[in-house]
Amino acid sequence: MVLDKALFKKLNTFSNNLCEIYNIEKPKNRKTLCIYFETLEKGLELGEINSLFIGMTLYEFITSKEVRDRHTTARIFEDIFGDLIGVKATDTENRSNPDTTETIRSYDYLCNGLNWKVSTDLSTNKREKADHKIDNYKLSIKTLKGKLYDIDGNIEDSSFNGEINIGSLSHRALFLNITNRSLTDRKGGLGSASQMTQLLNEIKNDGYFDEFKKRINDFITYVYEDDILIIFKSGYKMDITLIPSETFVQAINKVLNPPYEITDFTKIWSRWENNNLRINYLPLMKVIKEQKLKYYKYVLDLENVYKEKEFINNIEIIYNLIDEKIEDLL
């Protein structure tokens, strides 16, 4: 616990040292963040000391077999990431609904006679998206359970959670007046890809599919303006994918049009749960690659930390000194 606290306290120092040694800017936007991840990849490969400390922290608290199933790893990663780049998670701030656009407000007429507005729903959805704000660069962070790699790079467990909770998106706004069905999650038309496929086929047959596509574009362009950082907790590997916000919007728009089918869309846009939209990583990445859209991918080889014998021996010495000191106090 004492060493853990010391590590967390020093994370920003390790990160700053890394930037100075490799002569790169501290992360403040997409470009500098990508360079930072590339540098950390290289630092781990070369056994650079600051990279080793960062990698050890990520393994011990986020990706290891012993901790990666814990729900708390998502928040711990946000804290670690914030310490590395010198910012705090945005959920520590008081949030207010962001301004809406003229395009979004133009849908409010649909709510005449109702006690809610499309623009208010979507503004509330957008408010909760960004996990970190670096200057004006906003980032939404998602941590998922990936394949489990051992220290030799072998796969111990091939199970993979590719479902991403990308937060709330008002389905009542999206489907208002383009279906007569009373929609809910689970078994109410929105709870699975098969239910979504059936619903969208009905909307297409009723002649409202173009309106649905228009709303999808307008709504996600407004709500999902933050880049998406996806972290796979894979034991001795940390797989990182950065999807730019414009890539996400383009991919969704592309898959709603030929040659893609409705089922291709619902493989990605699969279901709502408690008003939170769930999408699937692998089919999303398939479309992104097919359409040659921009994305960034990195793999942190955390096994390199534990193959640096001198480093690990020194860490064990520190642990033993702490243990001896505790024994002295008893």
What does this protein look like?
With 330 residues, the protein is of the alpha+beta class. The chain has one domain. It is built from 14 helices and 9 strands. The chain has helices at residues 2-21, 30-46, 49-63, 73-85, 102-105, 118-127, 171-175, 193-205, 209-223, 245-255, 262-268, 281-290, 303-307, 309-329; strands at residues 132-134, 137-149, 155-157, 163-168, 227-235, 237-243, 269-273, 276-280, 296-301. Strands 1, 2, 3, 5, 6 and 9 form a 6-stranded mixed β-sheet that branches. A hairpin with a 5-residue loop joins β2 and β3. The longest helix is centred in the last third of the chain and has 21 residues, at 309-329. The chain is elongated, with a radius of gyration of 23 Å. The chain starts with a helix and ends with a helix. The model has no long low-confidence stretch (mean pLDDT 93).
Number of spatially distinct domains: 1
Low-confidence regions:
none
Decide which structural class fits the backbone: alpha+beta
Rg calc: 23 Å
Distance between the termini: 17 Å
- The averaged pLDDT comes out at 93
Helix content bin: 40-55%
Strand-and-helix sequence, N→C?
Answer: HHHHHHEEEEHHHEEHHEEHEHH
Number of helices: 14
Number of beta strands: 9
Identify the overall geometry: elongated
Strand content: 15-25%
How many strands, which pairing sense, and closed or not: the largest β-sheet? 6 strands, mixed
Jot down its keywords:
elongated; single chain; three-stranded antiparallel β-sheet; 330 residues; six-stranded mixed β-sheet; 14 helices; alpha+beta
